[in-house]
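[#protein-structures] MJ: dropping HAD-IIIC family phosphatase here for a structure pass
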Amino acid sequence: MTTAGTFPPDTAAPARTLRDLHGAGRLEAEYPLVQGLLAGLPADELSRAGHVLARADADEVLRRHPSTPTLTVAVTGHRTLGTLIPPLTAEFARHGVLLRPHLSDFDSYVFELGDPGSALYAAGPGLVLCVLDPEVVFDELPLPWTAADVEQALDAKVAMLRGLAATFDRRGSGTLVLNTLPLPRRFTAQLVDYRSRARLGAAWREANARLLAFGDEFPSVVPLDLDPLLAEGIPAEDVRLGSYAGTGLSPALLARYAREIGHLGRHLTGKTKKVLVCDLDGTLWGGVLGDDGPDGIELGGTPRGEVFAAFQRVVKQLGSQGVLLAVTSKNDPGPVDAVLRGHEGMVLAPDDFVRVTANWRPKPENLTALAGALNLGVDSFVFADDSAYECGLVRHALPGVAVVRLGEEPAWHVGDLLCDGWFDTREVSTDDRARPTRYREELDRQSFLATFDSVADYLQQLQTRVSLAPVAEREVARASQITLRTHQFNLTGHRMQPAEVRAAAARHGNRVLGIHSGDRFGDNGMVGLVLTRVDGELVHIDNFLLSCRVFARGIETACLRSVLSHARATGARAVEARFRPTAKNAGARGFYPDNGFTLVADEGDVLVFRHDLAEIEPPPAHVRLTAAYEENR
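AK: finished. structure tokens for HAD-IIIC family phosphatase:
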């Protein structure tokens, strides 16, 4: 049984294995094993493992395993921050991401962030962590000081941080994380009157609220609120280490901070999960439906039953923000359907799920079948179950699935599910909220397909409509999300944060074209991107992406042929396109050759194709496409 917000207990053997690998000089060679070795480690063992992993040579790892997701992270701030690197390395590795750290000098954050020519910008980080602590304010106070002095210092500090955020937003290409400032009692207690303490507390919270608002003002900034982490009982500081080693935040808080950053790093490298698959017995309700019957399961009405209802409310909350919900349970389907539709304690309804699977097949088979039906990889799944056996079976059979073992005490279920932020994203868009409905519509399409003798007849009756147009400012976040979440039809594997999308669209001769689609079953929203660049008489397709939700309907072919026709109409001599193989896009390797392109260069990790525009096939007859190529600014 686990407690909320902790990892399941395990042995220290994985950490020893890592030390053995490092000692034998094999850590880089065996790096793909690391993620599995770290799975389930307690927080203290994970931190120790981080010290070993931080010694790995990132260049050597990439030389041996070039497809390893990698993120360059710059760490800067007011105090000594070297102690953040080991837990950060471990958290990234636990999610299969290789960390390339760039650590700034002590108290250099103002210069590093304020000067676009600094070493921080030169490192080209995808993620910048500006770690703030209370001393950034109290180090600048006179002695003696008053609450009014703190207010003045806070105003100046927030204004300065706003300026740094604005500079980064204009000149940086990644994401900047700014955290709120804890307020330890050792500062408030130096004011002996309660009125002054209240004034200080109000000013401090108001300053933190202004920091949190930076995320709305600057698209490249992600504010991180430390208050929820402190509420878990983590100390804000270690006074002894702060005094002798120059640290600001406590090691425990830095480790917890690193976990949050690990979630963000996982998202920025395209590894955010999309589907939550839950068990029923012991998970969404107490008891065993087959033994206890609908009236005997624990769900609402009693303290323990209310705990399961509370867990369902959290699951429903996740689903409302675009997480796809599903069930796989070893039960007969009739009784399950009756409970989902008729039990007065149910919070979740049948329409909340994209699929409910109740049968006696092994759960890995059910997960694989669901992945096929949704046209998603199982590595986009989170599986939550109270059975150690079922969790172990899924973990062994489908190692890409994130397995959440829910213990016997249901009060901890919520904490165990939310502990790892599997579904964390930069921003929840309208498209995200509509995702469950669209996937249910996709299952309807499959049922519709089954009524036809041929795919061609099905496509003709599907009434697919497509629009291709420059991405508008309001669509930048969604465009970035497509690059982060699309794997199978991402023809270069390149991922872009919102600032990069915006910068690409703003460059002269560039276009970032959004693909929108719909059909007789509904509107799919933005489902893909085509990034083009004009260079003299050549048009370059720098990347082409399409969501797996709309594969095999001719959408990608229609859009490509539209781009070719527009290039020829505007005087281009040829169109060149790049394909960079990744671990997941092998199925799209023939896309350009199948559409009249010829291979003209093999650069090792990149294939370059060219179309001479002499003959362009018409778009598929069943697709109604409209295109607009004018500048959208």
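MJ: nice. The first strand starts at residue 70 and ends at 77.
AK: one more thing. The radius of gyration is 26 Å.
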